[in-house]
C-alpha cells in the first residue's frame, strides 16, 4: 500500500454542477484535493467555495491551454495555441520537444495570468497540474515545473501506473517525470486513474495521486468519468486504499 494518497478532483470551476459535486466530495471525505480552472464560467463561485474549511489550502491550479479563451494576450498570436478568433486550439503533438522562444514566453505569461487570477480571488494554489495533461508535453512541462519551483509548490507527474503503458511510453514518461521532479523539487511518487485502482495496481509504497473526475450518484456516493455508469468511486477508493491516509499537496515538503 502507498504511505499516503492524494485523491484530486480536476475541473473545479468548469461549471456550477461540477463545483457542487466537488464540494460534496470534499465534505464526504472522498477527495482530499482539487484543481481550479481560472478561465471557466464557474471560477469565481469555486473561489468562494474554496474558503470553506474542508477545501481551504487544498486547491491547486488546473492550467488550461485547450479549452475556452486565454486570459493573456501574447498567446493569441501563436497559431499552435489559439485560433484567429481567440479560442484555445492546441496543435502540439504529444511528443513535441521544442517550442519557439515566443511560444515559451506566451505559455509562461498565460500560466502567470491564470495563477494571478486565482490569487486575486483569494486562492493561492497548492500545486499545479493541467487540463487534458498538456504539461505532459515536454517543453510545456518544463515551463510549468519551473514556475512551480519559483512558487515552492509541487507539480503532478505524468501518469506512471497502468497496465496500458507500453514500453516506449513508459520510457518517455520516466524521463519526463525525472525532468519534472528535477525542475520542481517535489511531486507525488505515483499517479493513476480510478481504473488503475480497479485493476489492483496501487503501488506498494510512496505517495500516490489518484486523478478523479467525480460525479453524483445520489446520497453520499460518487461515480467518476473513468468508471462505468453507476459504479462507485467511493467504494473503489475505500476498498483499494483502506487505511491509507488521504492528504493534500500542501502536506508534501518542498526541498
Explain how this protein is built.
- Helix content is 33%, strand content 16%.
- With 255 residues, it is an alpha/beta fold.
- It has one domain: TIM Barrel (Alpha-Beta Barrel).
- The strands form 2 sheets. Strands 1, 2, 3, 4, 5, 6 and 9 form a 7-stranded parallel sheet that branches.
- The protein starts with a strand and ends in a 9-residue tail after the last strand.
The major sheet is characterized as: 7 strands, parallel
- Structural class of the secondary structure composition? alpha/beta
End-to-end Cα distance: 25 Å
Mean pLDDT across the residues is 95
Write down the overall geometry.
globular
CATH class: Alpha Beta
Could you state the CATH homologous superfamily?
A: Glycoside hydrolase/deacetylase
Query: What number of domains?
Result: 1
- CATH architecture term: Alpha-Beta Barrel
**CATH topology-level fold name:** TIM Barrel
Strand content: 15-25%
Task: Please trace the helix and strand order, writing H or E for each element.
Answer: EHEHEHEHHEHEEEHE
The strand count comes to 9
Name the helicity range: 25-40%
Determine Rg (CA atoms, Å): 17 Å
- Spans where pLDDT lies below 50 across 5 or more residues: none
